[in-house]
Each structure stands twice: as structure tokens, then as C-alpha cells.
Amino acid sequence: MFSNIGWSEMLILLVAALVILGPERLPGAVRWTTRSLRQVRDYASGATAQLKQELGPEFDELRKPLADLNELRGMTPRAVVTKHLLNGDDSVFRELDKAVPRKEDLFGAASGMPDHPMPKLDKPLARNERPPIDDDAT
Predict the structure, then answer these.
(1) Which SS3 state, helix, strand or coil, does residue 85 take?
(2) Are 72 and 65 in contact (CB under 8 A)?
(3) Alpha-carbon distance 58 to 66, whole Å?
(4) pLDDT (0 to 100) of residue 119
(5) CA 12 to CA 51: how far, in whole Å?
(6) What are all long-range contacts of 12-18, with beta carbons under 8 Å and residues at least 24 apart?
(7) How far is CA 113 from its chain centroid?
């Protein structure tokens, strides 16, 4: 349930609760929260068990589209194309990855600038002198 909350967020929530509730009411609030969460979880699992018991084998038929939807929700566009258009064969993408260089390889990961050296000037530029223009680059 709280899988996307990190330790830093939990620490911030704890400090905020300590400031808002105070040290004397905080343990009672934590007990009430854990008891309420446990009760909600028990209600949800009980409702699932009751539905499964009442519907029988039809319950699995209801769950399959939802499971498929959850699977699609977590897929990347590349995985969707691979699964549905290429029947799971991702060799096209692997060959494309080999043929097309990555952005980091072209521009360098750290600087964001090309790794090739800039052209050297024979002498420093004089005042108000324009630098030479590289016709191949423009």
C-alpha cells in the first residue's frame, strides 16, 4: 500500500505528526491508524473471499480482463509493440539498437557536448574580429 513512500517521506510525516499531535497523543494515533488499516485490509480480503465463494469459477473470468489491463498498464510502448505486433520477437529493436548510436555515445554523457575537439585558431582573435565560420557545420 505504501510502496511508493520512501524513508525520507516517512520521517517527514513522523516529524509533522509529532509537531501536530504532540508526544503524548502520538502513540495513540499510531495505534488507531494501524488498527484502522488492518481492519480495512481485513474487510477487503473478506469481500474478495465472499465474491469468490458466491461466483465460483466465474470469479476467475471476471479477474482475467482486470489482470490483462494491469499488465498493459505497466508496459512500455516498446513492450506493447513487441508483444502485440511482433509476437514477442524483439530482434527488430535489438538490431535497431546496434545500428543507431545512443545519444550518450554521440554527445558524451557528462558534458552534453560533442567529444570531438574544436578547431584550433592559429592566433588569437583581434578586437572586433569575427571567428571563422565552419561551412560544414552551418
Answers:
(1) helix
(2) no
(3) 13
(4) 58
(5) 39
(6) none
(7) 27
> Which of 56, 98, 93 lies closest to 76 in space, CA to CA?
93
Q: Which residue has the cell 482475467?
A: 64
Residues 6+ away with beta carbon under 8 Å from 132: 119, 121
Question: How far apart, in whole angstroms, are the C-alpha atoms of residue 56 and residue 133?
Answer: 77
Contact 74, 82 (CB under 8 A): no
C-alpha cell at 14: 513522523
Shortest CA distance to 89 belongs to which of 78, 97, 99, 98?
Answer: 78
pLDDT tens-digit readout, 32-75: 999 999 999 999 999 988 888 888 888 778 788 888 888 777 77
pTM above 0.70, yes or no: no
* Residue 66 main-chain phi, psi, to 5 deg: -65, -40
Mean pLDDT of 87-110: 73
Residues 114 and 106: beta-carbon distance below 8 Å: yes
| Cα 55 from Cα 97, distance rounded (Å) | 48
